[in-house]
Structures are given as C-alpha cells and as structure tokens.
Automatic annotation (TrEMBL):
PANTHER family: 5-OXOPROLINASE SUBUNIT C. This is Allophanate hydrolase subunit 2. Keywords: ATP-binding, Hydrolase, Nucleotide-binding. GO terms for molecular function: ATP binding; hydrolase activity. NCBIfam families: urea_amlyse_rel. It comes from Staphylococcus massiliensis S46. Residues 24-316 form the Carboxyltransferase domain. The keyword Hydrolase applies. It comes from the Bacteria. Pfam families: CT_A_B.
Length: 338
C-alpha cells in the first residue's frame, strides 16, 4: 500500500493547492506551481482537486508501486513507461504490484504531476499537505524525495475508484484523456500579461516600454521561489525605497543590476526590490512550465482587462473539467465483460 522511490529525481515534492491566508505571518503558500496540471491529474483518477500530487521538476523520479493503483501524470512533455506500456500525459492508467514508473526523456520537461487514486498519506500543516521546504513542514517530512523513501497511499477509495479499478483490470489504460492540442491553448503562447502595481511608478515610461518591447529568456536560475530572467537590464530607482515591501506570487522584481525576477509560490513574503508589476494569475501555470532558454514577451494590461481575461480563462477551464467529467460518466456506465 505504498510507493517506493528508487530515484528521487532532481526536485520532487508533494503539493496540493497550497496553504492560503498565512502570508501576513510570513508563512508561504507553497502549493503546485502549475495548479491546472495538478487539478487535471486529480480529476482523471477520481480524486478531490485538493488531494496532493507529486510535483517533479526537470529530472523525474523513478517510482515502484507495491500494490495496484490508478495513476495520471500531467504537465510537461515527457516520455515514460511501465514495463512495455508507454505512459502518456493526461491519461488514466491502472498499475499493478511491482510496476516501476520510469521517465526516459527529460529534454522538454519542466514539471510533471503524478496523482494516485485516493491520494497519499502525508503530513498536514495549517490545513495543507503541501511541502514547505523553508519551514521543513508538510508533505513528506517537509522535504524533497530521495532514493529509499516509502510513502503510503491512503487507499481512500470511493465508488468511482472501485469502478475504474474494475474497468481497467485487463486493458490497464482508459481510452480517453486530455489531448495536447486542447492544453496548448493555455501553455503555447510566450506572451505574459502584467498588471501594473504601485511600484511601477518607480520606473520611467521609457523603461516600462523597453520592458514590454524586448524579449527576456528564462535562465537556469529557476526554482519554486522564482525565475531569474536574462535580457536588456532594467533601470530602476533605488533611492528612498522602503526597506520592506509586500510581494506576492507573480510579482516582478528588479535587482540592482537590472535583472528581473518573477516570484513563484515559495516566494519570500517581503522584498526590498522595485516592482514592475504582477503577472496575471491565469498565466502563472504557463510560466511554471516554460523551460530554460524559453523567450517571454510581457504586455501590460489594466485591472478591467485582467478581470475579463480571468473570466474567459475560468470558462475555458470549466469546459475542460466538464469534458473530463463527461468522459468519466461514460466510463462509469460501461459494462465490463467477464
């Protein structure tokens, strides 16, 4: 009733949708960087959307399963297999006792999310099982995974899980899932929307125009705290800057050498660098999946436009989830021949 980590990969940790409401106390939210991929994985295996998934970065983990279970892996492009069976993104599979999940191609991968039916037994802190690497709490002992770790599965199965186990006993995989073309509508574009914050007043109009005219590349200096960009340096005013300013997920800070940084889920809660603005929430998942060397173009939008875009994004996501639910209902209606 567990998974055994044979290779922890580069940076693998358990994340749910985060622990919200504590940033004023200096506690980071954590949570899946690509929340859309996280939720798709859970929906495909019949879980609640906030059930923790295993977030794997760049080099994925190698995992052995000690009993049958249902899995789905979402997120970045990858090649994976279990024995002779290929594992494709955003599909539903049944694995058996002794099966080993291995990723064989990481060149295009950024982050992948593994969900298992019923979820994992993890440490809960402040209502969340997300791993807070700074406080070393939540998830699996508050840290990333390493070879030899054994994580129990909760086996908290509902009627839907039991039916999926039955339906996939012979075929081992469902005939449906989420295709890459559908998801490309969210991830493909390199344009990132930015909402001006009060801190944008610390930059000249010419500097802000330069920021939105030029391209910036993602560097290798990227983790769950943030992403350092490479491009034309940005000139900012540092005189009379307050020693501490509130920051949030998506804040774009500018270091003293003119380098922009996009903050992500594990960001510090106070900062002292000038801020160009905040990335629109609906583009955070896209940024989190961009590989090193990817080019980004930034576009300022106002609050009204951001709200309209967010409504469109939510509608698209809901349509996607409705499609998954429709296929799941069809799966539940199947009569399995003995």
């Amino acid at each position: 009733m567990s998974i055994i980590i044979e290779d922890g990969g580069l940076f693998s940790s358990f994340q749910d949708l985060g622990r919200k409401g504590y940033e004023h106390l200096g506690i980071i939210a954590s949570g899946a960087l690509d929340s859309l991929a996280h939720e798709i994985a859970n929906r495909l295996v019949g879980n609640d959307k906030n059930e923790a998934t295993l977030e794997m970065t760049h080099k994925m983990a190698r995992i052995r399963f000690t009993e049958p279970t249902l899995i789905a892996i979402t997120g970045a492009h990858f090649k994976a297999h279990v024995g002779d069976m290929s594992i494709y993104p955003s599909k539903l599979y049944r694995l058996e006792k002794g099966d080993v999940l291995t990723f064989t191609d990481h060149t295009k991968s950024t982050r992948a999310y593994l969900a298992v039916a019923g979820g994992f037994e993890l440490d809960t802190w402040l209502g969340s099982t997300s791993t807070d690497m700074i406080s070393k709490l939540g998830g699996f002992h508050g840290r990333t995974l390493k070879a030899g770790d054994e994580i129990n599965m909760k086996r908290d199965y509902n009627e839907r899980h039991h039916k999926l186990f039955e339906n996939l006993e012979k075929s081992k995989k469902a005939t449906w899932g989420v295709d890459g073309y559908t998801l490309s509508l969210n991830y493909l574009s390199d344009v990132i929307h930015v909402i001006k914050s009060k801190g944008a007043e610390d930059f000249t109009e010419a500097t802000k125009k330069q920021f939105t005219t030029n391209e910036y590349k993602l560097t290798s200096k990227a983790n769950r705290v943030g992403i350092v960009l490479d491009g034309v340096p940005i000139k900012a005013y540092y005189d009379d800057m307050p020693p501490h300013q509130a920051v949030k997920r998506g804040s774009i800070q500018v270091k003293r050498d003119g380098t922009p940084i996009i903050l992500l889920n594990d960001h510090y809660t106070l900062g002292s660098y000038p801020q160009l603005g905040t990335v629109a929430s609906y583009h955070i998942s896209k940024i989190s999946q961009k590989p090193q060397g990817a080019k980004l173009k930034f576009q300022y939008i106002d609050i009204e436009q951001a709200e309209k875009n967010l409504i469109k994004y939510d509608r698209w996501v809901n349509q996607l989830f409705h499609c998954i639910e429709f296929k799941m209902q069809e799966e539940m209606a199947k009569v399995v021949k003995s």
